[in-house]
Amino acid sequence: MSNARNLANLLGTGSTIATAKIADDAITAAKIATDAVVADGLKSDAIQHGDLPTGAILQVVSSTKTGVSNFSTSSFSDVSDLNVSITPSSTSNKVLVICHLSCGAESGFRFAARLVRGSSDILNGDSAGSRSRASVSAAGTGGNPLDETFCISHLDSPSTTSATTYKITVAAEQSGGLSVNKGHLNTDNNTIYRVTSAITAIEVAG
What we know:
Elements: H1 3-11, E1 57-65, E2 69-71, E3 77-86, E4 94-104, E5 110-117, E6 120-121, E7 136-139, E8 148-156, E9 164-172, E10 178-180, E11 197-204
Antiparallel strand pairs: 1-11, 2-10, 3-9, 4-8, 4-10, 4-11, 5-6, 5-7, 5-9
């Protein structure tokens, strides 16, 4: 039988080959050209989130704060622009939250930050007497330079497929003059810097 007739038998009246007509071992990795399958050749729903292995990155959302915010209260308050909303595709997936937070404060005054999911703190130190709990903390020097650029990271298990908000809250000693994205004095010259802070949430297959 000619190759043409073999092909005709496989195709029938259509232009595709039915799965039932292909032997189990007919197509091997060695027989597939390196560029045979390309992204443009796949249907938009060809690969589902559920098909990906544990640890695969499914989506990334991020927010960067470029402006300055000032705080002078011991109550933890939201930092504008340091929040992201992510909607997990499965309750078994995790969310890796990464944040850098740049701060300056009045000399000797302590300040702290918390990582929050919704309205719940999710990364605090253990309880110890009357001490406040937080994700990170430092003390101000009162100068022009930044006192601290915190790096906060946490692998969270939100166990939901609803939109979930992650944010940063900060607090300082009363009237401690905490600033985000600048030092305390902030003298106007070209060796004093205005900087950024950012928060990123990454959905990871569970």
